[in-house]
Amino acid sequence: MTDASSGPDAPAPVQGGDAAGAVGTAGSTRRSHFVDLTPLRSSPPFARLWAGNTLAGIGTFVTNTAVGLNIYDLTHSTFMVSLVAWFSLLPMIVAGLYGGAIADRFDRRSVALIASTVAWGSTLALATLAWAQVHVVWAFYVITTVNAVAATIASATRQAITPRLLPAELLPKAAALMGISGGVMVTVGPGVAGVLVARSGYAWTYTVDVVLFFAGFFGLWTLPRIRPEGEVPAAGGFRSVVDGLAHLRRSPNVRMSFIVDIIAMTFGQPMVLFPAVGAVVIGGGSVTAGILLAAFAVGGIVSSLVSGRVTGLRWQGLAIRNAIVSYGLGILGFGAVLAATELGGHAVESMDFGAVNRWALAVAALCLAVAGGSDNISAIFRQSILQSAVPDHLRGRTQGVFTVVVTGGPRLGQMFAGTLATLTATWVPSVVGGALVVLLVVVTVARVPSFRDYDALDPQP
């Protein structure tokens, strides 16, 4: 905690800034570019929550990767693997909306613990099936859907807890730390899953997640009770959801943070193209696809590691706009590499990594790293606006909507990129989509001056 008198239940005000436009304490500006660890030092509960969530998140990505491999081994069908995401989409949306309402009515620590327990139970069920050698595909869909619903509620609740553990000026720095943990999850989890599945089998792989989950429980168990402050929603769940959406309509800055993210995710999601890029454009097969995915994640990690001064920026709406424009340019650059490779006659149709077009792979990975870093910077400030400008009694519901946006946006992006690539060429979705991201975000933000001029010293929803 920042001091003994404030406690976890007392929201801390934003402190003063300096003439350079950075948010700081006592008018000071952070000199180091390295990630600011102040949130971990000032709030032991946040530090435990962050560390526990990171370890548990690695386990989650281990299981998510293993489930896809397991279903493919049973069915030899990519379509059957994709059904995991589609079966869980609508339940996740409902869970995000209603889960946020639950987090705004009850003790958030208890809500997060119950949801996490259900998620842990679903992972235990996967491990049990694997140890018993029960190979029923429909069971994977049911269990992973239950897991996705529980994880959605737990995630929205944890995000609503964070502003109660830290003063407002530390929220961007906390978001940067979350960016590091998210990048570690994405890069470490799938790699660990691949090694474990190959060497030990699915049963041991799922069991690793069962064990890592206890780190997340520790972070939650050590929290104090965190009941919502202000007006507690009535018993009617649907009415509570409607009230939360009504507040979003009256909150142009929070709403814009969602809109610009939807633009970026809808038109700038090239991940679905990576297998084809590895097979018929750059070459290298699954290894190339893995490198491209890792490049995006590594970009996010690096941007958080050097976020020390960035997280002190005062004009956060402008920072979001610039970060998403940079993201769009990174995606556009990736598309340009594919276009130059295909149209220039340098495409490599080979699953052998030894035959890969190394220059194209290097430049494409660099572009994706820029996009990943820019996306992470945007996420830092979008999360900061969401946590500092929204009243505490509405944070759960707003975080629930945010979860829906984060969940649904990439799926729309996969549909856009996959469909356009099928109708045209592999490079077209990234070139067209990247250009659309830049154009639409610039035009959209210009139409909402309050978002463009959003001031972290005076957070307004």
From TrEMBL:
Residues 1-25 are annotated as: Disordered. InterPro entries: MFS_dom, MFS_trans_sf, TM_effector. Residues 208-461 form the Major facilitator superfamily (MFS) profile domain. PROSITE patterns: MFS (PS50850). It is a multi-pass membrane protein. It comes from the Bacteria. The chain crosses the membrane at residues 49-72, 78-99, 111-132, 138-156, 176-197, 203-223, 258-281, 287-306, 318-339, 359-381, 427-446. This is MFS transporter. It comes from Terrabacter terrae.
